[in-house]
Design goal:
Distance between the termini: 137 Å
Number of strands: 26
Strand content: 15-25%
Number of helices: 25
Helix content: 40-55%
Shape: elongated
Largest sheet: 8 strands, mixed, barrel
Radius of gyration: 44 Å
Amino acid sequence: MSLSLLVSSQGINHFAQLAAQRDMAANSRVFDNIIENRAAVMQASANVVARDFGFRSAYAVGDRATLASALDSLAARTGSRVAMVIGLDGSIVTSSNAPAIDGSAVFATLEDQQSRGVIDLGGQLGLAVAAPIEMPDLAGWLLVAQPMSRADMTKLSKLSAVAIEASVTTANRLPAALSGIPSGTIVEVDLAGETVLARISPLPSMQTAVAPRLILTHSLADAMAGYAWLKLLLLFIALVGLAVAGWLAVKLSARVTRPLSALTDAVRRFGSGEVIRVAVAGDDEIAALASNFNSMVDAIDERERQITHVALHDSLTGLPNRRFFIEKLDRAIDTQSDERRNLIAFIDLDDFKLINDTLGHPTGDELLRIVSQRLQAAMPEAELARFGGDEFGILLQGLNAEANLARIAQLLSKTLTGEILIGEQAVALSASFGIAVGPADGADRETLLKNADLALYQAKNDGKGAYHFFEAALDEEARRRRKLEVDLRSAIREGQFEVYFQPLYSVAEQQIKGFEALLRWNHPVQGMVSPADFIPLAEDSGLIVPIGEWVLRETCRIAATWPNSMMVAVNVSPKQFASPGLKQTVIQALSASGLPAERLELEITESIFIGNVKRTLETLHSLRALGIRIALDDFGTGYSSLSYLRSFPFDKLKIDQSFVRGLETEASGFAIIRAIITLAHALGIEALAEGVEELTQLDVLQREGCDLVQGYLVNRPVPAAAVHELIQRFGVEIQGQRFAGSVA
């Protein structure tokens, strides 16, 4: 038993010493983490201040008072003793009550990219971090330091699981008993008459002459005292099995608890956003769990990279998207000047919707890919982006004052013009684009983007394949359009619109057969606004739908008061025709006014067929089923008018006024008019000629058999109140006298 007790006692002593060494090693890593975490907190605070716009502005203009105030605030907030700014020229601005520091020694480590470490704070060592001051290039460093006094180290020691004393000193000030200890190892030494476990580890330095060392000591007597109770227990009960069980329990704890604690800590840190992995040792369940955790971290990290790429790039072309383009533009604007100009081009492909609708979306997608490849090949130095749909953006940075902007625009035009073969289908490519150049066209992102968009709008108005540079007049025109749009919305609410009526005259019967409703805007300030000014704006803004509904209801109400033989024609815009409530609006207008459906004629243009032709035909047939007449307006101006005549039996063809004017100036005018009238009669459709202003035009149309005419020769459009008088005058005076009631 005595031998067993002796062996057990020696074993306990040996194990206690090993356990103390392990605890010492574990808590050494705790100290390293505590110091690293403190440095990370200081680094985060320093980075926030170094990136602050006001701080960088004060530093840029040399406002030392503002810098000193900011440094005092930073030092107070982080509990630091020292906060300073070190310039590239070696100059130093420090917080109040800061000790003298050798800036040149710190400068050398900063140039070596050393951003954390220990420095000498006037004879006392302290933990320091440095944050670069970038505007956007490196202009200096912001340095924050906290003392590592004995009191501070004592506070840190209390965070340890065992009683460890910690201190920081330099290599040349180490006690003689510790000077020979290899770095990072735990040894047993006699220090001040006491046996302790000691560990010396180097700390990073931010001064070339300072070699800091972290000293950790742990009393061996204190470590052994914790096992005295076991000796007493063994002495009294002499149970070797208890000692063996205790040893097995501690061993099991070392194999299970620590790996689980490490894994728990890794999960916590990963949950806070840190990408971390754990060491995998052994082949048990805990090792398998650690391996699966590492696999999960790798998979999530890869998915995050993919999500980031998808969020910043267009999936179809692989180009950056609008968000990424804006980020690049912001960085470019920070450095732009009269000698470093930024050119922005907004590109819009011509007739892309038509290509999609007629040739299919796969062809449209392939066209977009080809366009992106052409742009990348033609302008490899440019930042390209796809904004969505058929819109692209280009950013050229650093253009000097002598750069030939016209040549750049011509290169873009050449790149985006021509015929492209997609499969076996030849596609005509053209694009409109607008260009703005900063800083002349905008010193900030919003202005530059807005002006490029205005230039694109003007280019699209100029026609296909056009480009336009921004001009100040475009901004003024845009403001005028915005003001007009605001007034247009007020006009709807305040009832500023009026319906005028232009007579439709039967050539054969020599009498008025009906009227076409024409919208007029009586602006309270500007007076009568031309439809050419506000109708396109109403189309672009979508206001044409409520305006068109009002015109339809008002026209039916007025026409219901006319003689029963008089019909009325109302134009329906493509957007109004595409709205789902068109049929219901027509039914309500007829019902509320009491106007018979056969007296209402809806005029449409062939542009309504671009898109969903099947749905368009269904809508037309449903309107025809109500008894309403359907007229095809501006016939002959589209490339597919004949195909629409085969798809739907229209009641009337309106010959565009450009052909009527051509009767006097073009030799082919007669042939075109004759062909349209002959075609209409062959299909049983009435033919109406618009824009008739001369008797010679009327004579030709009468000889060719045109059914109806409309124009200033017959009468100008009149208000609703004048329609009855016009009907009466024509009806009385027209007998035997051509256009006796005409005001032309």
